[in-house]
């Protein structure tokens, strides 16, 4: 059992080393009492502020690095255009609108019940209150010789898969890349076209992203009991839970593309 767990953890360690991404969201807890509608509970549960608040500055940097020789006058046009296109409130509204437009009757209210008072809410509260004693990389080095049990690894992997976290990171990255190419085209006539991942490259990146998400979850949720993790997993694995996970991801991706289009329109005026 220990040998198997050690092998599993070694595989996870390798995947994390290759699969980290700047698009992975950090947690930003909204102010208490800020959510008044069921859709707000759904967005805050997935820490939407950590996606939308820092996005404009990160996007400006990404476009500048992508072009490589951005001129001062281009940067002066780009910064306010991105501030407009990637306004956090607009991004959040776009995500909420998409989800509400695609929600079957009763789903938003049902999910709001368990993200506010179910097992997943408890998991989120415990993880938010937990401050790991060491950073992720040091934790990985420590636990390579004494990894979590095989059962714990598989349970957390199932929880992460139910939330489709690896898929989300990759989908977000691709949507932001597509938006960056759109903006590049608005700034320069010689911009390259966006080339989305496909085939073996897509599956390889998805696999690395998924395993990296598992390692991150193992580290961040170390004090959360197996029972609570399983109960939360079952919530996400429900029909409504899977709609929630998938629709939220699509909504965020569409919001990023729409933001890129807003920036491009401003730049081409």
Give keywords.
269 residues; mainly alpha; 75% helix; globular
Q: Could you characterize the architecture of this molecule?
A:
With 269 residues, the protein is mostly helical. The chain is built from 14 helices and no strands. Helix 11 (165-187) packs parallel to helix 14 (239-268). The longest helix has 30 residues, at 239-268. The chain starts with a helix and ends with a helix.
| Helical coverage, percent range | over 70%
Unreliable parts: 5-11, 14-35
Shape: globular
Alpha-carbon Rg, integer: 20 Å
Q: How large is the share of residues in beta strands?
A: under 5%
Global structural class? mainly alpha
Question: If you average the pLDDT, what whole number results?
Answer: 86
The number of strands is 0
Distance between the termini: 64 Å
How would you characterize the largest beta sheet?
none
Write the element-wise H/E pattern from the N-terminal end onward.
HHHHHHHHHHHHHH
| DSSP summary: helix tally | 14
Compose a concise summary of this entry.
This protein is mainly alpha-helical and 269 residues long. The protein has helices spanning 2-19, 38-45, 48-52, 55-67, 72-85, 88-101, 107-117, 119-129, 136-143, 150-163, 165-187, 199-220, 226-237, 239-268. The longest helix is centred in the last third of the chain and has 30 residues, at 239-268.
